[in-house]
Amino acid sequence: MAACGLDFGTSNTTLGLVTGQRPQLVPLEGRHVTIPSAIFFPPGQAPFVGRAAMAEYLEGTPGRLMRSLKSVLGSSLLEETTPVGRERIKFRDVIARYLAAVKTRAETETGRVLDTVVHGRPVHFVDGDPEGDARAEEALRAIATSIGFRHVSFQFEPIAAALDYEQQVRAEEIALIADIGGGTSDFSIVRLSPERHAQPDRSGDILANDGVRIGGTDFDRRLSLGTVMPLLGLGSAMTRGDIDVPTGYFHDLATWSSINRLYNAKTLREIEEVRRDAQRPDLLARLHTVVEAERGHSLAMEVEGAKIATSEAGQGRIALDWVEAGLEAEIDRQGLVVHTDELARRIAERIDRCLAQAGLTADRIDALFLTGGSTGLPHVRAALTAGVPNARVVDGDTFGSVGTGLTLEAARRAA
Asked: What residue ranges do the domains of the chain occupy?
């Protein structure tokens, strides 16, 4: 029997064990220690997970793709059902099947039975709803138990990242940990040192915790609504009255967790009816093409890829020639900021809340430790560093710091 740390993220998942006194993330898909939080259900077959799930979908295999599974925790979607082949299954059970596959892969890779888990969790699954937050954690606990974990506990994701960072700390310092992931942005202010690292109880070293339900998928959504959805009819007018085309289709299509809602005959009939009464029926025809082909996830992947390319190289391109010959959208860094700067500012506002909670001024922060994929967005990074301008900036393992810290915590709790 063994204890593990499990970082079930909105975009990616890791699982780690301590071997030979060192935390090690387990390869979960080939040599990759990260696996996308995605599952694909082909008709009549066992589901695919991770990169294989997305590959099956992109290759045109019939079936249902689900990604960003964690985002349904804390929402009413968790108990809703979704059609998978000829049956309907709850989103709760979708998460269980995905995590069961991750657990099985880790056990096969390590040759050990995993019966104890320290699960990562955001500071807030749900903003401003303590009861909803508690329900989300309890749901995740129940899911973990249902797939074979006998002992389940939790640690805040930014605290886990702090435990990873502390391995390289050489003297006592106060660090602000910023974990900007796919679904949430979480912050902790923690007192760290080599001596404190060995102490079993660290509760006194946690000076502040806060977070907000904004992450990389929200940036994708804003970019999609601002650059792609107008090409499919968003904001265009109807022929009768001073009204625009209904917006619900576009918001669902731009939101990872809602895309599958569109894949039914009723929605297709509605879109066709709207197309007949739209001033730009050609745009609605494009929307119909995307929904009929069930390619909404392809669209979301294209937007995500363009976001990453823009953050790294200053420009990204969204190829839409599979919708209509020659159709494309482009994003540059200025456009990225225009569409998503409000999100960056709302994330950075949490720094002031953490400082107030800790009773500290910004100049007391020695280090700003950054982890999570969205810290790679230049304007997000700039907003974070502006909050603690004198702090030393330390870049963690973008997708592995939280998992490594959870693994350290799992070993400590199991000792």
From this structure: 2-170+397-414, 217-337
What confidence tens digit (pLDDT) does each residue in 98-131 have? Answer: 999 999 999 999 999 999 999 999 999 988 889 8
Strands 48-49 and 64-67: unpaired
Which fold, 2-170+397-414? Answer: Nucleotidyltransferase; domain 5 (3.30.420)
pLDDT score for 284: 98
Task: Give the model confidence (pLDDT) of 263-298 as tens digits.
Answer: 999 999 999 999 999 999 999 999 999 999 999 999
